[in-house]
Amino acid sequence: MEMAADSPQKTLIVTCEEVVDIQLANELHAQLKTALDQRLRVEIVANRVERVDAAILQIFYAYFLAARKKELEVAIKGASDNFQRAASLLGLSEGLGLAEVAL
């Protein structure tokens, strides 16, 4: 997973690799907490995801809730079918701003 801050627009771009597993959870949580504290816009690029752990989706979901409370912009760009399917299985699609996928 690659995370890069785009200073002029105050955007954190989180680019997910093919496999996004629990080993990345602490780093992801810390980066999203910093983004929240600094009121950064967050874009999650998930178009290459083949497998994503539930813990990662839960971190994204918690961030979406916190960002919305602070009226911050957050979006998932180009979510792969597997990413969408995993979110749907966990009941997180709506909260992540994804369309429900037929299982």
Describe, in plain words, how this protein is organized in 3D.
The protein is α/β, with parallel strands linked by helices and 103 residues long. The protein has a single domain (2-89), classed as Transcription Regulator spoIIAA. Helices cover 37% and strands 22% of the residues. The chain is built from three helices and six strands; from the N terminus they run βββαββαβα. The strands form two sheets. Strands 1-2-4-6 form a four-stranded mixed beta sheet. A hairpin with a 4-residue loop joins strand 1 and strand 2 (11-15). Helix 1 packs parallel to helix 2 (54-69). The protein is globular, with a radius of gyration of 13 Å.
CATH class: Alpha Beta
Radius of gyration: 13 Å
CATH architecture classification name? 2-Layer Sandwich
Tell me the total number of β-strands. Answer: 6
Strand line-up of the largest beta sheet: 1-2-4-6
Classify the helix fraction into a percent range: 25-40%
Helix and strand layout, with pairings?
Layout: E1 2-6, E2 11-15, E3 19-20, H1 25-37, E4 41-45, E5 51-52, H2 54-69, E6 74-77, H3 81-89
Parallel strand pairs: 2-4, 3-5, 4-6
Antiparallel strand pairs: 1-2
Helix pairs in contact: 1-2
